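wait is this the right file?? whatever heres the structure
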C-alpha cells in the first residue's frame, strides 16, 4: 500500500481493545507538565519566541481567500470520475460527498468508481467510461506507475491530492495537477508546536507510516525547522507496518515506542489515522503527560482529544472539502484551456486547545470556500 494517510477511523471502535492491550495500571488524562514548560518567558528563550512568531500566522480560526480571483465560464456537460480507492476511510467518504456537491454546482455528472480491490484494473474500468476528467487521492508516481501510465496514455486530465509535490509526482505525465497541502510547511508547524509544548526542549519521536511523498516532505520540514530555529531535535523514529494502522496492535506499538525511548518528550504521529489509535493507548498506559502527541489532518475525533486534554496537544490541519472544490475548479480551467493556479490556496492551520472548531466537527478552513467558488463560477 503506497500511502496510509486515508486509513480508516474504525480504530475508534477498537479503543477498548487498545486500552486493554496497552497493559497499564491507570490512565493519564492530562498533558499539563509538558504544556507548563511552554510557559517559559519567550524573551528569555529565543527558541520559544521563534516558535511563537513562526506559528502566529497559522493559528487564526478563520482563513483569507488566497486562491484564484477569476474564473472562465463553466464548461458544460462534463463527466468527472473519482477513483474511489480508500472506500473504508471516513475522510474518503467525506471527499466523495463533497465532490457530489461541487459537481452539482457546475452541472456536471459525477461518478465514484470503486477501485479499491485492484487499483490498476479499476483505473482501466474508469477510463472505459470515457470521462472528461479524473480526480483521486494518494495516487503516487512511484507506487502507482502502471495506473498513471494508463491515465497519461488516455490524455484525460487527472487532479490528485493528499500527495507531496515531489519532482517524481509533479513531473509524472499521469498527474495533471496536485492540490498542494504544503506538507513541508506542515512539518515545520509540527516542530514549532513541539518547541512550544516543551519550553524549547523538544526531543521529538517520529511515529510514522512507510516512506511516501508527503511524509518525506513533512519530516524534512521538521528537521529543517529545528536546524534553523533551535528548540529541539528528532531523537527517535519508528516506521509502522501498514497492516498495523487501524488495528489494536498499533496502540501496543505506540506504547512500546514511548517506553523504549525514555528521552522522547513529545511524539509526532504522521496523521490522524495513526493518532486515533496511538493517543488512547499511550494515555491508558499512563504516559500522556510524558509524551503528548501532535498529528496532522484535523479529523473531529482527534480535535476532541485536544479539546478534552486526552493526550494530543496539536493537529496540523487542512480542509479536504476545500481541496475537493479546488480540484473541480482546476478541471474547469483545464477544459477552458486556462492556466492553472500555482497554488490553489487551501489553508494550513495549527490547531491547539485555543483555536479548535466546534466539538464534533472536522477542520474546514473557517471560510465559505464553496460559496466563493460558486461566485467565481457564476452559479447558484
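ok assuming it is, sequence goes like this
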Amino acid at each position: 500500500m503506497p500511502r496510509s494517510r486515508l486509513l480508516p477511523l474504525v480504530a475508534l471502535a477498537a479503543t477498548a481493545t487498545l486500552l486493554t492491550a496497552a497493559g497499564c495500571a491507570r490512565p493519564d488524562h492530562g498533558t499539563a507538565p509538558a504544556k507548563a514548560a511552554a510557559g517559559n518567558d519567550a524573551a528569555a528563550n529565543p527558541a520559544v519566541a521563534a516558535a511563537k512568531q513562526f506559528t502566529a500566522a497559522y493559528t487564526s480560526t478563520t482563513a483569507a481567500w488566497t486562491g484564484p480571483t477569476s474564473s472562465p465560464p463553466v464548461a458544460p456537460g462534463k463527466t468527472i470520475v473519482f477513483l474511489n480507492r480508500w472506500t473504508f476511510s471516513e475522510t474518503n467518504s467525506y471527499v466523495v460527498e463533497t465532490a457530489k456537491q461541487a459537481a452539482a454546482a457546475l452541472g456536471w455528472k459525477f461518478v465514484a468508481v470503486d477501485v479499491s480491490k485492484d487499483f490498476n484494473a479499476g483505473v482501466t474500468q474508469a477510463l472505459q467510461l470515457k470521462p472528461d476528467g479524473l480526480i483521486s487521492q494518494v495516487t503516487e508516481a512511484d507506487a502507482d506507475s502502471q495506473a498513471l501510465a494508463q491515465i497519461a496514455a488516455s490524455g484525460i486530465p487527472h487532479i490528485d491530492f493528499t500527495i507531496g509535490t515531489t519532482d517524481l509526482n509533479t513531473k509524472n505525465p499521469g498527474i495533471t495537477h496536485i492540490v498542494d497541502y504544503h506538507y513541508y510547511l506542515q512539518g515545520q508547524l509540527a516542530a514549532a508546536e513541539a518547541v512550544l509544548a516543551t519550553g524549547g526542549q523538544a526531543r521529538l519521536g517520529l511515529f510514522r507510516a512507510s516512506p511516501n511523498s508527503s511524509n518525506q516532505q513533512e519530516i524534512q520540514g521538521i528537521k529543517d525547522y529545528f536546524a534553523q530555529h533551535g528548540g529541539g531535535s528528532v531523537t527517535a523514529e519508528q516506521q509502522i507496518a501498514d497492516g498495523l494502522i487501524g488495528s489494536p496492535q498499533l496502540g501496543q506499538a505506540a506504547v512500546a515506542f514511548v517506553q523504549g525511548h525514555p528521552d522522547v518528550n513529545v511524539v509526532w504521529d504522521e496523521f490522524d489515522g495513526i493518532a486515533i489509535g496511538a493517543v488512547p493507548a499511550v494515555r491508558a498506559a499512563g504516559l500522556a503527560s510524558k509524551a503528548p502527541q501532535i498529528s496532522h489532518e484535523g479529523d473531529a475525533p482527534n480535535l476532541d482529544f485536544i479539546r478534552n486534554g486526552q493526550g494530543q496537544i496539536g493537529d496540523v490541519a487542512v480542509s479536504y472539502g476545500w481541496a475537493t472544490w479546488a480540484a473541480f475548479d482546476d478541471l474547469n480551467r483545464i477544459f477552458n484551456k486556462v492556466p492553472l493556479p500555482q497554488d490553489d490556496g487551501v489553508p494550513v492551520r495549527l490547531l491547539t486547545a485555543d483555536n479548535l472548531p466546534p466539538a464534533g466537527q472536522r477542520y474546514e478552513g473557517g471560510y465559505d470556500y464553496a460559496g466563493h467558488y460558486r461566485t467565481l463560477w457564476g452559479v447558484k
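The mean pLDDT is 91. so i think its the right one actually
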